[in-house]
Protein 1
Amino acid sequence: MSCVSIIIPTLNEASCLERTLHQLSILNPPAGEILVIDGGSEDETVAIATKASIKVLSCQPSGRSLQMNYGAKAATGDILCFLHADTCVPDDLIAVIVATLEDKSIAGGGFISLMTGFQTTRWGVSLHNYLKTYYAPLIFRPLLFFKGLRLLFGDQVMFCRRADFWDCGGFNDVPILEEADLCLKLVRLGRICQVNRIVTSSDRRVAHWGTLKATGIYLYIGILWGLGVSPTYLKKFYEDIR
């Protein structure tokens, strides 16, 4: 079986990292390696990862795209999987990833993301995020859509072959939507696939904004991105929430 490297960019993720790492500890089959790439956390993030016997690498300056590229350079697996610290995955994650990429026509993939909180599942927001994977490329990149483009976002646990990742130059150095940009590059090498399996992510941003505001922001950012607006400008509407 191919070796899968799981890369987790972190910055002050102590509230959720322990749970995520626990789930990764029971993967069957296990990951080839798990790397936490920390951007200078001031909480217990690094201590939690170290206690779990996870390799921690420091990346400065911080920035999710920079940290994930840094982790990809350090990774030894032939498949890379990019995981947010607040996202939980099924215990057969590795088998699903390997089986998906056995199809040589597929260059990359991700999962269906379900946003959850304490006694709450954000069904409406989650449905919109699922549909956005399809309607965003259909509207803004229709030719690429019919060649297999699907736009994946951070909570969807994106994965691809290491060779293809570097063939495309890795993640662009942008403050937001770096996964979507990578999809635009990867589709030159093959289809992008949304696997029919669920991962769950924290609803902390939706809880902070409220459902209507969150949906509006996601739509606004997606439309402006599709029209070519700078990610630096779009980042102003997407505050960091821990």
Note: The domain at 4-237 is CATH 3.90.550.10 (Spore Coat Polysaccharide Biosynthesis Protein SpsA; Chain A).
Protein 2
Amino acid sequence: MRSTYLGLLVLGAITTLSGCAKLDGRVTAGGTLNSQGGDGKAVFTAHAARCDGEISGRVNYQDKTAIDWQQMGGVAFNAQVYGAGLCSEDPVPPEGAEAEDETLYCKQDICTEGMFQVEFDYNSTNPAAPGEGSGFACMMDIGEGVKSGFGANGILNVMLLESGPYQGYHNAGTMGGNVQVHDCPSSDDDA
């Protein structure tokens, strides 16, 4: 299973310079999903926004029974968001944008149209695995519970840690909690 997501990491690196444009929006997510390879549950929360070009937000995560990290107490981190946006069908780069600015587009074939992508720099909160790294997550708002047809309120399509003490860690699945995508608040300049 680890090799599958290492392949995903390579795919992400290959497609980094292409993908769909990010639109302004906000996401709030919180809940549990199955541990990555362990017996327990993982806890994921995210609050991120891209509004009028301003990016903000935080991600928190804990998976105490994560396989490959279980002996050291699992994966646990707090993170600061540096990239966020709702993935659109529009190609990148938008007119006048620089293709090298990866905060402007979603990772093609990983975070697709309708998903909200968040990139973050994390700090491990597990004393047995100190350090910093980076990662990204793609999530989808699928409606309200049973009405969604999936019996869940949100999907964490993928979360992949690309560097640091948890490099290669990944998780995905339906969330027992919620993912909600919102419009940005209207600014005073909007007519």
Note: The helical segments are 2-14.
Protein 3
Amino acid sequence: MQDRRLQDFLGRWQIRRGIVHDDGTRGQFEGEAAWRAEGRDALYLETGRLSLGAQGAFQAERRYLWSSELTVFFEDGRLFHVVPPQGGETAHWCPPDQYDGSYDFSHWPHWQVVWRVSGPRKSYVSTTRYSPLAGSTP
């Protein structure tokens, strides 16, 4: 399998995310992600609608900075995780909760990341699927 590079992600992607909490409640997110080059790095911006059970649906967004080495940082500069270039496992400790991620690039340019979150504050599985948007260049 080919190693992914930051340039592979640049452009616009459709996102579909399913969230399943350990108590059985479900959520979903549908929207768009865009990686925009900023020097050797890229800004990741995700926008869309998040539905979380009884809370209803609302607009949501998140931003990360991806380095050229596929290291992902939160907006405030804190380390989030490292993306394995061939796909595979990664992790993030956010006291008191553990985030265990798995990237799957086997059907590139359609790909996904699954996060299993466990701890006293959060306990869920989030599966995000990415597909290139028409006219984009992933």
Note: The first strand starts at residue 11 and ends at 21.
Protein 4
Amino acid sequence: MKTKEIAYCGMMVAIIAVLGLIPPIAVPIIPVPISFQTMGIMLSGCLLGKKLGTISVVIFLLLVAVGMPILAGFRGGMAVFAGPTVGFLVSWPFCTYLIGSLVQLNHTKHQLMGYIIANLIGGMLLMNLMGGIGLTLVTHISLGKALWSCLIFFPGDIVKAVIVAIVAWRVKQHHFIKL
């Protein structure tokens, strides 16, 4: 890895951590809060691509695993990987990889729409699918019920996907990040 790439990964880890400072919003029907850190996951795939974006997210999760309280709500440690959010957390590297792959495939003049679609597929559909599976494994509710309850995240995820797509599109348009 080049020094520039290491710096980009470090900045993305910091961005994801800073997004965790925004207090999570409790959801009444499931024990998983709404977090703004998912925007960081989408942003890492959009800006850094599948390789560097995924490396950034894996580093972030390793920092969480060793106890750094950088998840929303100042959570950290191995216990978060045994709780109801495990499916969402485990999905993050896969989501980033998928978003990065979809963005890298889309090199047309309609990049903004490509970013939105990539974020909706990777940052909403895949994340909530894996999150629902994790919720089923931890809480022992049926998969159908878990997936159904994850639908509560869709309106906010759509807004997050669009905001991240606009930010990523503008950053790329002005060549702030050169990979």
Note: Helices lie at 3-19, 37-65, 86-105, 111-139, 143-150, 154-173.
